[in-house]
Amino acid sequence: MKPKMIIPMLVCRDAEAELNFCIHAFGATELSRRNAHDGSVIHATLAVHQSLIMVHSESPHLASRAPLDDGSSPVVTYLYDDDVDGIMDRAITLGAKVVLPAEDQFWGDRVGRIIDPAGHVWNIAAPIR
Fold first, then answer.
1. Neighbours of 124 (CB within 10 A)
2. Sheet holding 29-35: strands in order across?
């Protein structure tokens, strides 16, 4: 039996840029890639720790569209990693906007929220030891 899982797909105007952001900000590893005839990225799969994320270009035949870059995306992706502040710093250097600076929260996590350059919203979090 194959493992069952949920894998988010991030739809982007510039999938190549999103791949580079995830690789450099989050330490993601590219597992697969499909390119269009012009060399642009149609689809790629990344691993971040034990999780997978798909990155996909907007496509005329799909109704899915990239989010606006104003933080209005209805989806927030959580990335749990012990290096919240380091990831936030790298993400900001790579063009992410801070929505909430990293702070210790009453429920026991350190959490910061960013909008990546493609408009996807991320919470970067770690349990407080």
1. 26
2. 9-12, 51-57, 41-48, 29-35
Q: What is the pLDDT of residues 102-120, one digit of tens each?
A: 999 999 999 999 999 999 9
Q: Are strands 121-127 and 109-115 parallel, antiparallel or unpaired?
A: antiparallel
Residue 126 corresponds to which amino acid? A
Q: 56 to each of 26, 82, 84, 93, how far by Cα in Å?
A: 18, 28, 26, 23
Is the whole model's pTM more than 0.85, yes or no? Answer: yes
- Tally of CA atoms within 13 A in the half-sphere of 4 that contains its CB: 1
- For residue 112, which of 124, 96, 129, 104 has the smallest C-alpha distance? 124
Q: What are 71-90's pLDDT values in tens digits?
A: 888 999 999 999 999 999 99
Domains along the chain with CATH numbers: 9-59+67-127 (3.10.180.10)
